[in-house]
Amino acid sequence: MRDSDKTILDRIDEIYTECPFYGARKISKELYRRYGIKAGRKKVGSMMKKLGIEAICLKKKLSRPNKEHVKYPYLLTGLKIDHRNMVWSADITYIRLSRGYAYLVAIIDWHSRYVLAWRLSYSLDTSFCTAALNEALDKYGVPEYFNTDQGSQFTDKTFVGILEEKKIKISMDGKGRALDNIFVERLWRSVKYEDVYLRKYQTMFECEAGLKKYFAFYNYDRIHQSLDYKVPADIYFSKKKEKRKAA
Predict the structure, then answer these.
(1) Beta bridge mates, 119
(2) I need a surface site. Which of 62, 144, 216, 244 has the fewest CB within 10 A?
(3) What is the pLDDT of residue 63?
(4) Residue 34 CB: number of other CB atoms within 10 A?
(5) What local confidence, expressed as pLDDT, does residue 141 receive?
(6) How far is CA 89 from CA 32, 36, 198, 204, 225, in A?
(7) Final residue of a domain: which of 18, 42, 58?
(8) CB 154 within 8 A of CB 178
(9) CA–CA distance from 129 to each of 33, 68, 152, 181, 222 (Å)?
């Protein structure tokens, strides 16, 4: 990847994280307004496809659907989520490195916002998602519902098979339902603004070490206004902080 294209991808990532409702045309204008970067709508659109993102009103998804995979309906409408392990969800985001980029998947408990597991990968194959899923299940038990988008990683027979074997109810965001996975979307904003953009990781190794520290901070020290200024671990474990451990 040329350095100039890498720079544009990074700037698009910044703008999109801040304004996920912007499409290619607005991001093109914003690139020039903020950074003096001239990139037409078609070029920006092509790069957005490379990142796997779309304007939020059109339903953003980093991974593309596989038409041969089974899709599941959205099951969470009107559901009162009032205890841990009721609903888990997973999503994937783009992580910048000094040269190139990586992908991050995270699994989160909706009730507590506690990050149960995460993995980094250079590619968008299914294996890093299933590894995170298996870790979460091994450490924290079985949720009642598991929600994702309809990306190919989450509709893959290996990923779905793990959920079905555990008799977990599978819920998937439908087209135009970009906010169905809102808690993970908020997590990505925090990860990027509070860590990735500040640290400017050079390598995958450095990024993984840094994110390990960040997710420990996020789970055990970062207060959330939506949690009445408690931290996710307080809610998930329903008691005072346990001995600190890395996510």
Answers:
(1) 105
(2) 244
(3) 53
(4) 11
(5) 97
(6) 36, 38, 26, 24, 21
(7) 58
(8) no
(9) 37, 19, 11, 16, 25
Nearest residue to 96 (alpha-carbon basis) of 209, 220, 11, 184: 11
- Write down the pTM of the prediction: 0.76
Q: Is residue 152 classed as helix, strand or coil in its secondary structure?
A: helix
State how beta strands 87-96 and 145-148 pair. Answer: parallel
Residues across the chain: 247
For β-strands 115-121 and 101-109, DSSP reports them as antiparallel
Query: Given the structure tokens 């996020």, which residue do they identify?
Result: 218
Task: Specify if 31 maps to a domain.
Answer: yes
Residues 128, 213 share a domain: yes
For 116-152, b where at least 16 C-beta lie within 10 A, e where not — what string? bbbbbbeebebebbbebbebbbeebeebebbbbbbbb
- Number of neighbours of residue 38 by Cβ within 10 angstroms: 10
**What is the tens place of the pLDDT at every residue in 93-102?**
989 888 788 9
CB 60 within 8 A of CB 17: no
- Tell whether 80 is covered by a domain: no
3 state DSSP class of 1: coil
**Average pLDDT of the residues in 195-218:** 95
Q: What's the CA gap between 72 and 36, in Å, rounded?
A: 43
Radius of gyration of the chain (CA): 18
> What is the Cα–Cα distance from 93 to 120, expressed in whole angstroms?
10
